[in-house]
Write a structure and sequence with these properties.
The structure holds 2 protein chains of 2 kinds.
Chain A lengths: L2 H23 L4 H24 L7 H9 L8 H36 L11 H27 L3 H21 E2 L2 E2 L1 H25 L2 H12 L7 H28 L3 H6 L4 H23 L5 H13 L3 H25 L8 H20 L6
Antiparallel strand pairs in A: 1-2
Helix pairs in contact in A: 2-4, 2-13, 3-4, 4-9, 4-11, 4-12, 4-13, 5-6, 5-7, 5-8, 5-11, 6-7, 6-11, 9-11, 9-13, 12-13, 12-14, 13-14
Chain B lengths: L1 E10 L2 E11 L4 E5 L6 H9 L6 E6 L2 E2 L5 H7 E4 L11 H11 L8 H11 L15 H15 L4 E2 L2 E2 L1 E5 L7 H16 L3 E5 L3 H7 L2 E6 L2 E6 L1 H4 L2 H8 L24
Parallel strand pairs in B: 3-10, 3-11, 6-9, 9-10
Antiparallel strand pairs in B: 1-2, 1-4, 4-5, 7-8, 11-12
Helix pairs in contact in B: 3-4, 3-5, 4-5
The chains are: A mainly alpha, B alpha/beta.
Chain lengths: 372, 263
């Protein structure tokens, strides 16, 4: 590249950065937000590819690529093919889906309840969803035969969805009066619902056989270890559908941060918005819990970090959270499966180790703004 | 014109206002005054569509409120509530622009100009980059008014007047900004729009209102020009407090009236 062209490009870049800084000072973060989304897309792609290339076993991505395009010796690459296409790829895809779903559910729920602490994991929606799933596993075909017949392998996500929906509706009835949500009531109700679902799960443990008991432990901690294409096929349509709805909620969620009455003054059909938001949170959380158990803190850490940088405008916050949530969950999964290799930690332990101190930091930093 | 006829509203089964008649004309500032709990805010909330009447009817420009969708209402009237708490870190500019999305301002090229004008109008030019949560109560109130002005930036569209519904718009402001905001409301009326405001300060009301509605215990007790409504008799009957209208205190007691301000 000629020298003058390089200098020219450098100057344009500096001017661009100065523009963004000036806009930030004038309270305009929309261009910054679009830039962040582009960067997040690149980071998500890089993380996705990186996670497919790393793991306990050696496997060459190049070999698999050659197998895919049909050029290489089929016998040589079959082991690599299984490791990558049947183990690591579904795991990365599931991580991306579940991470995006948890983060976006967090954003929608926080918008709906007008508080940055309202996370499906914290307020008991995930426990409700996992109770639905646990009931299905333990009582199984005996009690839920028709459900299996009707939904096939979607039965588990559907049961978790119903559990999550019932919990969300209950929470809303308990914590919101006249359009005002008490965050203290919300969090305390979350504790009560968590204890209740824990107790019911405890009773089910007595009925469970060995295999079911292992499954139950799995729901408690959360893991991507069982990822396979069947699970993805069961969860992906539900998660993708709920994610696809959220851009249409963005303007309404922006308005509702000023209060339900103000949102109505600004022309938002508030009741319809709330119904759609609640169903989409319950569906996304339910599907995620069904395939990966209770993975905590993604829904609170990701939106909070992004609000600090690009602001709370849901038009940008929703896609950015989906990208960062997916990326972070893939990273957490890479840590979970390499740190004690060849064994692996449940991913819920990793997210809790990162998320819990972060949550405490949020509390210390902004108690006055949280309505606590 | 906003026309309220025989309006009754119940809250939690208890009747809060009953048999209220009220007319708010375009080009006029209509003030609702009265003691605490007399139903002023409830009346305003019913006019905004936020509370539905248990009986009676409300019409805006001849159209019945119950038949209008939220977005249709949003094009006809803007509403300023008493106070608005936000728990997310919005900048002032972002809050004000939320009003744009709700209004009839379809041309994105005009958005920056309308935003700047609205902030200028409430004396907050230069505040665009500040965080809403870090402002004082009075400043937050003015940011919300700027947001409403973005939603209803033109007092008249296609010959149809539009309305500002303000619930105690100056309650948390200093005297200079009280006068500034009331003048803003006046100007909106002069340009053909209508304003309905719940007010506490009777002097300020007398100075700016064209029409005054005095409420007590959920009913309208007096109704007319400030000169007709503000009398010794109505003051005692409505506020339960013997007072004399238009009498200066003894010379050694200082008092300041907004009417003396040179603006």
């Amino acid at each position: 590249m000629p020298r003058s062209e390089a200098v020219d490009r450098g100057m344009r870049l500096t001017a661009f950065a100065a523009d963004i800084r000036n806009e930030w000072r004038a309270g305009n973060r929309s261009r910054l937000a679009r830039l962040v989304i582009v960067v997040l897309i690149a980071v998500a792609v890089a993380t996705f590819v990186g996670s497919i290339m790393t793991g306990a076993a050696d496997a060459s991505l190049a070999n698999v690529w050659r197998w895919l395009v049909g050029g290489a010796d089929q016998g040589l690459s079959i082991r690599d093919r299984i490791i990558i296409l049947d183990i690591r790829l579904p795991r990365a895809v599931l991580g991306l889906l579940v991470g995006a779903s948890l983060a976006v559910s967090g954003v929608v729920m926080q918008g709906l309840f007008r508080n940055p602490l309202a996370d499906p994991g914290l307020v008991g929606v995930s426990s409700g969803a996992s109770l639905g799933a646990v009931l299905l596993i333990v009582l199984g075909t005996a009690a839920f035969g028709p459900l299996f017949a009707l939904f096939g392998f979607y039965a588990l996500p559907v049961a978790a969805f119903v559990g999550g929906l019932v919990t969300t509706l209950l929470l809303y009835r308990i914590a919101t009066r006249g359009g005002q949500t008490s965050i203290a009531t919300l969090l305390l109700a979350g504790i009560a619902l968590g204890a209740l679902t824990g107790a019911i799960t405890g009773i089910l443990v007595f009925r469970a056989d060995d295999k079911q008991l292992r499954d139950l432990t799995f729901w408690g901690l959360g893991s991507l270890a069982g990822a396979n294409w069947t699970k993805i096929l069961a969860a992906a349509p539900i998660i993708l559908a709920s994610l696809a709805v959220t851009p249409f909620l963005a303007r309404g969620l922006n308005a509702i941060t000023l209060g339900e009455a103000v949102a109505f003054h600004m022309g938002i059909p508030v009741q319809r918005l709330k119904n759609i938001a609640i169903v989409s949170v319950a569906a996304a959380t339910g599907a995620s819990v069904a395939v990966s158990g209770g993975i905590g803190f993604v829904g609170i850490v990701v939106p909070h970090l992004l609000r600090l940088v690009i602001g709370p405008d849901h038009r940008y916050l929703l896609p950015a959270s989906a990208l960062l949530g997916g990326t972070l969950l893939i990273l957490a999964d890479m840590i979970a499966r390499t740190i004690v290799s060849p064994a692996e930690l449940p991913i819920g332990i990793v997210t809790a180790f990162i998320g819990a101190p972060f949550f405490l930091w949020i509390l210390l930093r902004g108690r006055s703004n949280m309505g606590l | 014109m906003i026309n309220v006829s025989n309006l009754s509203v119940r809250l939690g089964g208890r009747p809060v206002i009953h048999g209220v008649f009220l007319e708010a004309l375009p080009g006029a500032l209509t003030a609702i005054v009265g003691p605490n709990g007399s139903g002023k805010t409830t009346t305003l909330k019913a006019i905004s569509g936020e509370l539905s009447p248990s009986s009676g009817a409300i019409r805006i420009n001849g159209r019945d409120l119950s038949g209008l969708k939220p977005w249709e209402l949003a094009l006809m009237r803007g509403v300023l509530p008493q106070s608005t708490v936000i728990s997310f870190p919005f900048t002032v500019r972002e809050v004000v622009r939320l009003g744009l999305a709700a209004g009839a301002n379809a041309d994105p090229a005009a958005h920056d100009r309308v935003t700047a004008e609205a902030l200028e109008a409430v004396d907050l030019a230069g505040f665009a980059g500040r965080f809403y949560q870090e402002l004082s109560g009075g400043e937050q109130q003015r940011v919300q008014l700027a947001r409403v002005l973005c939603q209803i930036s033109d007092p008249v569209i296609d010959g149809e007047p539009r309305y500002l519904l303000l619930d105690e718009p100056v309650s948390s402001l200093d005297i200079r900004h009280q006068l500034g905001i009331m003048q803003l409301a006046r100007k909106f009326c002069e340009r053909g729009g209508g304003v309905v405001a719940v007010m506490h300060d009777l002097n300020l009301t007398a100075m700016f209102a064209d029409h005054m509605v005095m409420m007590k215990a959920g009913k309208v007790r007096a109704n007319g020009a400030p000169r007709e409504v503000l009398t010794d008799e109505t003051m005692e009957a409505v506020f339960g407090c013997r007072m004399q209208v238009g009498v200066a205190p003894s010379p050694h007691v200082p008092f300041v009236l907004p009417q003396t301000a040179s603006l």
